Amino acid sequence: MGTTVVMSTALRVVGLALVLTLILALMRESRPDWSTVLRLFGGALILLWLIRPLAAAVTSLDQLATLAHIPGAYLGLLLRILGLTYVTTLAARIAYDSGESHLGARIELAGKIAVLVLAVPLITVITKSLLALIPG
After folding, report:
1. How much is the CA Rg of the chain, to the nearest whole Å?
2. pLDDT band at 6 (very low <50, low <70, confident <90, very high)
3. Per-domain residue ranges for the chain?
4. Which of 11, 21, 120, 131 is 20 to 30 A off residue 31, Cα-Cα?
C-alpha cells in the first residue's frame, strides 16, 4: 500500500475526529443520548477506515518474514502481541475517559505483563541467535 493511501486515510481519520470532537462538544449538554450514538458511529467508522492499511501492514510483515525465513509462529506471536497492546490501550482509554483511572491503570498493567509473558519466546530466539553469532 502506497504512502499516499496511508496519508489520505490518516488525514480522513484526523478530519473526522476533529469534526466529531466539535459536534460532540456542542451536543454534550443538549443531546447526551445522540452524542453517545454519534461517538460510537464515529469510532466504528474510523476503525473501518483503518482495516485496509492494517491488512497491508500484516501482508508486508508476512512477506518480510518469508524472505528472512522466520517461522510463521513467530510472526503470529508478534501480531498477537501487537493486537494485545492495541486492545488493552483501547480498554484503558475507555476506563480513563469514564473517570475510572484506577481501573485504566490496572488494565495497562495487565497488558504490559501479558506482553512480557508473550514476548519471552521471541526474546529467547533473538538471544540464541545473537549468541550464535558471537565467536568462542
Report:
1. 20
2. confident
3. 1-69, 70-136
4. 11
